Amino acid sequence: MTQTRKLSVALFIIRVSAAAFLGVWASLKFYRPEWMVNVFRNVYKLDFITQDYAMAIGTVQMLIVFLFLIGFQRTIFYGLTALMHSAGVIGSIPSLLFKFTIYPSNLLWSAVPTLGALIALFILREHDQFTIDGWRKNQKKTL
Questions:
Q1: Closest residue by Cα to residue 68 from 131, 10, 26
Q2: How does pLDDT run along the chain (143 residues), one tens digit per residue?
Q3: In which region does residue 131 sit, left (phi positive, over 0), alpha (psi from -120 to 50) or beta (all else)?
Q4: How many CB atoms lie within 10 A of CB 81?
Q5: Closest by Cα among 49, 48, 23 to 36
Q6: How far apart are CA 26 and CA 129, in angstroms?
Q7: Angle value at C-alpha 129, between 64 and 141, nearest 5 degrees
Q8: Which among 113, 93, 86, 127 is positioned nearest to 18, based on CA atoms?
Q9: Distance CA 31, CA 44 (A)
Q10: Alpha carbons 79 and 84: distance in angstroms, whole number
Q11: Secondary structure E strands in 2-136
Q12: Cα(139)–Cα(137) distance, rounded to whole angstroms?
């Protein structure tokens, strides 16, 4: 297997595993919308957020994660996915720094390497060939 092929496979694995992680995270807006309401009220101090907002935000997040998963418009959706996830990590900084030994705050640390993987994937997006964009680029070469 060539180095280019190995890199493409590695980026595919990162993308699929990150999409699975983020898909579960986004699906909680449907299964437990009250959790998102509590986070927005207690962490971000946004009291106007309701469970209806959780459903709307969850729908948008699921669409972004799906488009990220299939590698459509890599620059846009890899970037949006990284920004979307970074908002949660930034909002969690107090818990990450001061409550990291307390359950469930210690579980928030799983978001940090995921953010690192998303940033790396964004940087290497042109090398991620097992995508809609990669397929379209290869189609243009064969015509």
A1: 131
A2: 899 999 999 999 999 999 999 999 999 999 998 988 888 887 777 888 888 888 999 999 999 999 999 999 999 999 999 999 999 899 888 888 888 777 777 888 889 999 999 999 999 999 999 999 888 888 877 76
A3: beta
A4: 23
A5: 49
A6: 25
A7: 120
A8: 113
A9: 21
A10: 8
A11: none
A12: 5
Cβ count near 54 (within 10 Å): 21
Amino acid at 119: I
Instruction: Give the helix ranges, DSSP H, for the chain.
Output: 3-31, 33-42, 51-70, 74-91, 93-98, 111-123, 132-142
- Token pair in block for residue 2: 């060539």
Total length of the chain: 143
